[in-house]
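Reviewer comment 2.1 asked that we show a complete input and output for one of the modelled complexes. We chose the prephenic acid case, as it is the one discussed in the main text.
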Amino acid sequence: MTQPSADDDALNDARQRIDALDQQIQALVNERAGVAVQVAEIKQRQGRTDFYRPEREAQVLARVAERNAGPLPDQAMARIVREIMSACLALEQPMTVAYLGPEGTYTQAAVYKHFGHAVAASPHAAINDIFRDVEAGNAHFGVVPVENSTEGVVSHTLDQLVGSALIICGEVALPVHHHLLSHERDIGRIKRVVAHAQSLAQCRNWLDSHMPGVVREAVSSNGEAARRVAGENGAAAIAARAASDYYDLPILASNIEDDPNNTTRFLVLGRQSVPRSGRDMTSILVSIHNRPGMLYRLLAPAAEAGVDLARIESRPSRRQAWDYNFFIDMEGHADDPPVRRVIEAIQSEAALIKILGSYPRSIGLEAE
Ligand SMILES: O=C(O)C(=O)C[C@]1(C(=O)O)C=C[C@@H](O)C=C1
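Response of the prediction step:
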């Protein structure tokens, strides 16, 4: 029998300290959950249904990052607190979130990034099904893709926003890393690569150099691509890491996107407007009659009020030829006086203005 070394003793000692700390953390997390239950009771007494409060969650997470002294990085600490809040909210009210499925899509990853894993994420086949389900009250919230840094806007989402009563109550920016998933161990045996058309486009250079001549097949989503390929030989899917777990498909190559900064932005849709968080974005839809100088008259009030326009996107209005809807994102909340002034000024110029929502800006705290 060898004697335990000084390091063995030190290891035992360190593990005992970890056990004691875990006990304290667990007790504190449950104490926090108990307070969240009290918050729910207060809201119920007040007849309120706003159990989920995006602006409050954004403030909590921002504060976590501000006071974080390490050694854990801000992102890791935020992910932990994100999950604690998610579990607390589930005690207050179990939440259903509709998203563009099937399981394993990037939209599902966006749901968990934004809400944590304690929500019931419900996959839907099409973007308009998500709008309908949230409008009908079958899901509390919906998550849909709106824009990709390489491929541009998801026009279907913008078009649905025009006629919907839903309110944008959050945004999620997700770094999109594509992986090649296949049962094949050898890339040379792959005859077909399946993915969403946008993902095939985002990996074009990689595919050209590593899989020249291999047939590329576009399907409705990357989750769907993984689902199909799971039962096949000689095929590969391009999809998120999560799809590898869901469909039990090994990762043959990682991070095959041509642009390492490839990011997709998603919108969180709900039925209630969100109060100020202090770091907000406001999205509006503006329809104008095409007259000379009209676009300038629309944008000048923002410059005068010192409001930053983050994005402006035009779409044919479908009312008549050369008539456009503009989707404008500006920094700030509709209750902030400068933003209110801009909205009032646009109101007097535009044929129609619809406030799509004010919501906390996405904080890039969580890594994929
Ligand atoms: O502050 C609230 O209103 C809560 O319900 C508490 C809490 C939390 O756990 O911190 C939970 C859910 C909300 O989305 C925001 C915060």
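The chain has twelve helices and 15 strands. We note this here for comparison with the apo prediction described in Section 3.2.
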